[in-house]
Amino acid sequence: MTGMAMLFVILALLAALPSASVALVVTRSTALGLANGLAVAAGIVLGDLVFAALALLGLSVLAQTMGGLFAAVRVLGALYLIWLGFRLMTAGETTSFVQPEGGDGRRHLAVGLLSGFVLTLGDIKAIVFYASLFPMFVDLATPKTADMLMIGLITAASVGGVKAGYALLANRLVSVIRRRGAGKGVKKAAGGLLVGAGSCLIIKS
Questions:
Q1: Is residue 174 part of a domain?
Q2: Based on the structure, what is the number of domains in the chain?
Q3: pLDDT digits (tens, 9 = 90+) for 124-141
């Protein structure tokens, strides 16, 4: 259990590092409400679970050979970040911070979930990372079902918990800022953050 606790701490610390995924969680949470930030966090967790499963199943070498496909996904995710950031930067005073109701609300949640998932899938190096990290805690030659389930739960709890924390903090912060009448400035700052994150992703690609 000590090893699994160490794995949790490692994944949580890495998830807390500033990144494009953090920028997306924060921006969706501030612009469209906490539920949207949590939807992005859920999408990120799903992407990480896919990579963890591939690593546990020994498919890291295959993933490396598919680098071109994942590079294309990465560029698409980056372009989406830039587009979303541009929209926020050019939004008027009437743009709402409140989660829309009904069909529009569900659509925003679905977009948030999908964007988090696609953005995470764009990081092909994550499979190699997991494949190199997991052997410290599990025998990948003969992985046990219980160990695989435990790693999945730890991945979801650590990564999801950190990203959800970002969403909650961002939502609380924007509530304070809204009361002080600085909402437009927050949107422009968040938009600039997304444009910067998307541009960095394209450069790295």
A1: yes
A2: 1
A3: 677 777 877 777 777 666
